[in-house]
Amino acid sequence: MSGHVDKVQLELEELGYKTSLRDSQQGTVVEIDYQVDVGTHKGKTFRLGISFQETGYPEYPPHWIHVSPPVDDGLGGVVQPYTTTDGQEWVAMSRPPSDIWDKLPAKNMKNYLLEHVRRFWSRL
Q1: What is the pLDDT along the chain (124 residues), one digit of tens a residue?
Q2: What local confidence, expressed as pLDDT, does residue 54 receive?
Q3: Does the bond joining 69 to the residue before it have cis omega, within 30 degrees of 0?
Q4: Which among 7, 19, 45, 124 has the fewest CB atoms less than 10 Å away?
């Protein structure tokens, strides 16, 4: 396991999330149960995964958002549906927060979830 994954996992656990790790085509995925608080899925809980395109967190943010059960945010781009070995259906979407990452007050998972992941769900 690499340092950036360890750091993300630790930050999420410090925020009260129970995490798990698994391998995917997009690298190691840090998974949490995530209750949506905005958009059409408000109040629902999804399995949310975060993985990286490149190392160097927190300078470089997570690149991929994984969601189970799969959703479609309608943005297109790189979207890869897949099924894990236990039969769980997922979708991995290339959704880097490049437009906001350098503007955040701190580059961490708290702000990633508040600013980027909430924005993702608000578009659904």
Answers
A1: 578 999 999 999 999 999 999 999 999 999 999 999 999 999 999 999 999 998 899 999 999 999 999 999 989 899 999 999 999 999 999 999 999 999 999 999 999 999 999 999 999 9
A2: 86
A3: yes
A4: 45
Confirm if 93 and 78 have CB atoms less than 8 A apart.
yes
Q: φ and ψ at 79, to 5 degrees?
A: -130, 120
State pTM to two decimals.
0.95
Total residue count of the chain as it appears in this document? 124
Residue 90, beta-bridge partner list: 82
Q: Return the residue matching tokens 């259906």.
A: 89
CB 68 within 8 A of CB 82: no
CA distance 16 to 76: 32
